[in-house]
Amino acid sequence: MTLMNLLVDFASTGRIGPLHCGMPLSGAEALLGPGRPHPVIRMKGPDFDGYPHSWDGLDLVVTQRKVSGIWIRLRPGAPVRLPPLVLANAGEYEATVLREDLIAALDAARCRHEANPVLAFGEQSSILTRPADVCAVFALPGSDEPAPHRDRFHLSVLHKHTV
User: Fold this and answer.
1) What is the sign of the dihedral through the CA atoms of 20, 26, 31 and 33?
2) Cβ(155)–Cβ(6) under 8 Å?
3) Among residues 64, 65, 62, 60, which one has the least CA distance to residue 85?
């Protein structure tokens, strides 16, 4: 599986393999191993809601000890590391994904999507996939990012969350 295959599958289904919103954090940790809790969780305790546990480029937001959000974070021009369960052959992958490449891959997979005006402003744009309700946020690379094609929108995060 490639990074693009993973992104399209997540955008189409709202799941990453067995990981899904609503599952207990303990079940996710059984699959992924222990994550790095956000510093607020370490300070305030495991019942402090709305903050992520991280596995390199994968974040699982936790509410009432259940996964309430799944985030894949990319930094254009830099490698991304993802757990083996998420992307086989654990290692680093090129994280530069251009907006037009992801949209073309979604179209090829017949994954419907629409503009998300809530997260479209300034040097940022966003789409929502249907029916999975996964949000892709694109931005122009920051001055500290070694991204190619500095004048084109790159995927910075693909995420799903529940209310």
Assistant:
1) positive
2) no
3) 60
Cα torsion angle, 30, 17, 36, 95, sign: positive
Which 8-state DSSP code applies to residue 16?
B
Query: Which segments of the chain are extended strands (E)?
Result: 36-37, 51-55, 58-63, 66-73, 79-81, 92-94, 112-115, 124-130, 135-139, 154-161
Question: pLDDT tens digit string along 100-132?
Answer: 999 999 999 999 999 998 887 777 899 999 999
Mean pLDDT of 83-90: 79
Considering the entire predicted model, what is its pTM? 0.90
pLDDT in tens, 36-58: 876 676 666 667 677 788 998 99
